[in-house]
């Protein structure tokens, strides 16, 4: 029997989400864990984000940039919403997570305090360069430079 | 503007992470279209970002996809009609009126026609009213005929009395 059109659409979307899941689920879980610092909570958000991705799948432009960057942006927006709605952590509590000792990856040891704050603010908490510059009382140009330096450190560390 | 300086300024990193302002993003997209070096640098940066993130990966438990799948199936049971493409039917004359459901839809190729359900009650009402009026008409017709007969009878009796009266007066 032929499948009805809505059913076929749902199944195709689910198959596409499955491909994304197979490719990026572990990367996304690592990313979420760095934000919430709780394995169970990170897994819970992973499920929630993939369900949301499925619901908004057609609205995301997957051709424009690579799929990980799109997925990360989507997750970052979702996390920002959760922070703003008070379901995750208050903005003032974020600094609790910026402690390098809390992180399970090796990069924070290589960062200066400033690079660390800028990198975490942008990479994990979706802050804009303007916001961080104001917080740290720096020019936007120097904040961007510090972000680039942090990326160069990470890139070099990955290559070694 | 020197392209290398622009690439080294950190604006690409800010853009890829969604931390650039709207004006910066617009400028970058404009320059990206003009300078292939910027396009290449962006692609490299995205690949690097993916590699960096993969270094921090944590393998999710085996049943995570099943949880996602069951939630997706639950959501699928409540279809999101807005996301389903709608195929419009070809326009017909008076097609706008079809929405109201108050007009008779006549298909020329068929000997039948579909009408709104409300017409059934209207037809029943009209039929009952017709019967009531017919009953009244028959009743008044019979009443009228009877009255005419009585008037005729009375006329005949009156004439007879008048004749008898005349005869009596002649006799006197």
UniProtKB/TrEMBL annotation, chain A:
<dbReference type="GO" id="GO:0003700">
    <property type="term" value="F:DNA-binding transcription factor activity"/>
</dbReference>
<dbReference type="Pfam" id="PF04545">
    <property type="entry name" value="Sigma70_r4"/>
</dbReference>
<dbReference type="InterPro" id="IPR013324">
    <property type="entry name" value="RNA_pol_sigma_r3/r4-like"/>
</dbReference>
<dbReference type="GO" id="GO:0006352">
    <property type="term" value="P:DNA-templated transcription initiation"/>
</dbReference>
<dbReference type="InterPro" id="IPR036388">
    <property type="entry name" value="WH-like_DNA-bd_sf"/>
</dbReference>
<keyword id="KW-0804">Transcription</keyword>
<feature type="domain" description="RNA polymerase sigma-70 region 4">
    <location>
        <begin position="112"/>
        <end position="155"/>
    </location>
</feature>
<keyword id="KW-0240">DNA-directed RNA polymerase</keyword>
<dbReference type="InterPro" id="IPR007630">
    <property type="entry name" value="RNA_pol_sigma70_r4"/>
</dbReference>
<dbReference type="GO" id="GO:0000428">
    <property type="term" value="C:DNA-directed RNA polymerase complex"/>
</dbReference>
<protein>
    <submittedName>
        <fullName>DNA-directed RNA polymerase specialized sigma24 family protein</fullName>
    </submittedName>
</protein>
From TrEMBL, chain B:
<keyword id="KW-0812">Transmembrane</keyword>
<keyword id="KW-1133">Transmembrane helix</keyword>
<keyword id="KW-0472">Membrane</keyword>
<protein>
    <submittedName>
        <fullName>Uncharacterized protein</fullName>
    </submittedName>
</protein>
<feature type="transmembrane region" description="Helical">
    <location>
        <begin position="121"/>
        <end position="142"/>
    </location>
</feature>
């Amino acid at each position: 029997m032929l499948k009805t059109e809505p059913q076929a659409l749902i199944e195709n979307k689910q198959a596409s989400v499955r491909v994304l899941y197979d490719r990026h689920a572990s990367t996304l879980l690592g990313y979420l864990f760095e934000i919430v610092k709780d394995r169970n909570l990170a897994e819970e958000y992973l499920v929630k984000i993939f369900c949301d991705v499925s619901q908004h799948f057609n609205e995301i432009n997957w051709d424009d940039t690579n799929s990980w960057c799109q997925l990360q942006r989507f997750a970052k927006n979702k996390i920002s919403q959760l922070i703003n709605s008070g379901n995750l952590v208050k903005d003032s509590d974020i600094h609790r997570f910026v402690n390098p000792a809390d992180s399970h990856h090796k990069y924070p040891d290589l960062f200066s305090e400033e690079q660390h704050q800028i990198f975490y603010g942008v990479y994990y908490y979706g802050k804009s360069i303007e916001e961080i510059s104001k917080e740290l009382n720096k020019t936007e140009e120097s904040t961007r430079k510090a972000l680039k330096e942090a990326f160069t450190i990470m890139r070099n560390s990955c290559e070694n | 503007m020197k392209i290398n300086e622009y690439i080294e300024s950190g604006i690409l990193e800010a853009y890829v992470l969604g931390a650039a302002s709207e004006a910066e993003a617009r400028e970058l997209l404009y320059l990206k279209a003009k300078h292939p070096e910027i396009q290449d640098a962006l692609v490299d940066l995205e690949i690097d970002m993916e590699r960096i993130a993969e270094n921090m990966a944590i393998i999710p438990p085996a049943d995570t996809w099943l949880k996602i799948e069951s939630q997706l199936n639950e959501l699928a049971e409540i279809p999101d009609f807005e996301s389903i493409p709608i195929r419009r039917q070809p326009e017909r004359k008076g097609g706008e009126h079809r929405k109201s459901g108050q007009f008779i839809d006549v298909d020329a190729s068929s000997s039948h026609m579909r009408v709104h359900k409300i017409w059934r009650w209207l037809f029943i009402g009209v039929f009952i009213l017709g019967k009531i009026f017919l009953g009244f008409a028959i009743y008044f017709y019979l009443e009228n005929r009877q009255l005419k007969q009585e008037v005729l009878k009375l006329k005949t009796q009156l004439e007879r009395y008048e004749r008898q009266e005349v005869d009596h007066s002649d006799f006197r």
